[in-house]
Design a protein that fits this description.
The complex is a heterodimer of chains A (about 180) and B (about 375). With about 180 residues, chain A is an alpha+beta fold. Chain A is built from four helices and seven strands, in the order αβαββαββαββ. The model of chain A has no long low-confidence stretch (mean pLDDT about 80).
């Protein structure tokens, strides 16, 4: 005898929604609260390390779009000195091939993702824009050493994984710490 | 002596009697209108917040503390919109429809007792008046559907009429059960007669009345006439601006009226221990509205044939049986043993619901209705 036929199904459904009603909401209030992104995120920007770059232009050659423009001249010790290093991130598809191809680990994917601008010209990043800074952090994409230093990704901000499997709801005042 | 009469007598000391008579009515009517409008705002806010919580999200929480000004912001936005009238529509019918829909929701509150003696008119045929008034709004919806000259609106209007005709009957039948027990049509007397709340004494009647009113005020799962997945926005497809807001307020006004009537008839109205009576009334109204929301966020919308089948094959016969049962109990077992009656009625309600769900279990376990 199936009791679903006798209106029990509706009662069960009502209990399901009531259970959801008593659950805390999982909403993330974006500008105030942000999730920690994946450690290997290919964010919307590149980070360039001047000291490591030899100006070999492997990145420019590997770029399928030809977005990277690099101009060098010969230095005193028969090395390249980079005059111009410009990336048009407006046309970039963030495939990460430039980062993978760099023989000296001088180029990193960035972690940022809030890169809306008013003009397309602002998306073309020059040598000065591409440097490492407080806002411009390298991601762990293809760079395991960087990845090891980064915090782990959070999927639900308010839920704190205390002991392996059990999820704990964080009260409002504790949320900012996470 | 009601509060209104006391107020009138006090006014008569300061001014001529005819002026006191008119002024007292105007003041109390305005007070009730303000109560209804504020409660409509509260209901809209609660609906958005609580349905949000049912869906494990927050709901509007940006405008003011906990988002309480969101409703006002929405109202200002809708009011500032252009008032569009369809070129080939019937202007006057289109113009009057929102008013005809909204005003009955206000008029119901003329007979709802908020406290002992706090009632606008202590009508002796109160519940009859409520049943008559609350079915007027269907005419408004039909006018909207007809005047818009739009196929979706017309389909919605026809659905509304079918729904109202179907569900009016079981609702009235379940009300008759209460009238049999109390022996009065006046809502004040019905409240005073409830030593045990009637939802305990007549559980089946309560269920039928709850489902029937949910269908009559077009709340989900019976919201066929504004089914956005089928017929754009139903009867208010062609409405915008002030007229749309009247429809919107009418929807929640009817929800408020239905909750108040259910509270008065089945949940013993303003009666309750400790807290002041008006607060008890509000709490019960909000509980009934919460049940509406709960069902809304659980049950999917019915099909048209399921809707009418549910009314005619399920609710109406059950309401008739309930009516005969209550009549038999009133005649043969006068209210000497109320709690025994409660147990008996709950048992009968359970058996009847089981039997009737058996009827709807068609097609090898496929659940119809």
């Amino acid at each position: 005898m199936k009791f679903e036929r006798y209106g029990i199904g509706i009662a069960k459904g009502l209990m399901v929604t009531l259970k959801n009603f008593l659950r805390p909401p999982v909403t993330l209030q974006y500008p105030e609260e942000k999730l920690i992104t994946s450690r290997r995120i290919r964010g919307n920007e590149l980070v360039w390390w001047v000291g490591k770059c030899t100006g070999c232009a492997t990145c420019a050659k590997s770029c399928p779009q030809g977005n990277i423009e690099i101009v060098t001249h010969a230095g005193p010790e028969n090395n390249y000195i980079v005059d111009k290093f410009e990336v048009d991130t407006g046309r970039c598809m963030f495939c990460g091939l430039c980062v993978e191809s760099c023989p000296y680990d001088a180029l990193f994917m960035g972690r940022g993702y809030e890169r809306a601008t008013y003009r397309r010209r602002e998306l073309v990043l020059s040598k000065e824009d591409l440097g490492l800074s407080q806002l411009r952090q390298p991601s762990g994409y293809f760079r395991p050493k960087v990845e090891a230093l980064l915090p782990k990704q959070t999927l639900l901000l308010y839920w704190d994984r205390e002991d392996g499997q059990k999820l704990r709801w964080l009260p409002f005042r504790k949320r900012s710490k996470n | 002596m009601t509060v209104l009469e006391q107020f009138r007598n006090w006014l008569a000391g300061v001014m001529p009697e005819w002026a006191a008579y008119i002024l007292a009515f105007i003041v109390s009517a305005v007070a009730i209108i303000i109560f209804v409008l504020v409660m409509i705002l509260v209901f809209i806010y609660l609906e958005r917040r609580l349905v949000g919580r049912f869906q494990v999200r927050l709901g509007p929480n940006r405008c003011g503390p906990e988002g309480i000004f969101q409703v006002i912001a929405d109202a200002i936005k809708v009011l500032s919109k252009e008032d569009v009238v369809p070129a080939k529509g019937d202007f006057w019918v289109h113009f009057l429809a929102p008013i005809v829909t909204f005003v009955p929701a206000l008029m119901v509150f003329a007979v709802v007792p908020f406290h002992k003696g706090t009632v606008l008119t202590n009508l002796d045929v109160g519940i009859l008046y409520v049943v008559a008034i609350s079915s007027i709004s269907v005419i408004g919806i039909f006018m909207a559907g007809w005047g818009s000259n739009n196929k979706y609106s017309l389909i919605a209007a026809l659905r509304a009429v079918a729904q109202a005709v179907s569900y009016e009957l079981p609702v009235v039948m379940s009300v008759v059960g209460i009238i049999l027990v109390t022996g009065s049509l006046s809502l004040s007397k019905i409240v005073e007669a409830q030593t045990i709340p009637f939802f305990l004494l007549q559980p089946l009647g309560f269920l039928i009345f709850l489902l029937g009113t949910m269908a009559e005020i077009n709340r989900s799962p019976f919201d066929l006439l504004e089914a956005e997945s089928e017929i754009v926005a139903g009867y208010h497809t062609e409405y915008s601006g002030m007229k749309f807001i009247l429809f919107y307020m009418g929807e929640y006004g009817h929800a408020l009226a239905a909750s108040s009537i259910i509270t008065t008839l089945f949940l013993s109205g303003w009666k309750g221990p400790l807290l002041p009576p008006f607060l008890w009334f509000l709490i019960k109204v909000l509980i009934v509205f919460f049940i509406f929301l709960w069902v809304r966020s659980t049950v999917p919308r019915l099909r048209v044939d399921q809707l009418t089948a549910f009314a005619w094959k399920c609710l109406l016969p059950m309401a008739l049986i309930n009516l005969f049962l209550i009549a038999a109990e009133v005649i043969w077992f006068p209210a000497t043993l109320p709690w025994g009656m409660v147990v008996l009625n709950f048992a009968i309600a359970g058996v009847l619901i089981l039997l009737w769900s058996r009827l709807f279990a068609l097609g090898g376990g496929r659940v119809e209705v």
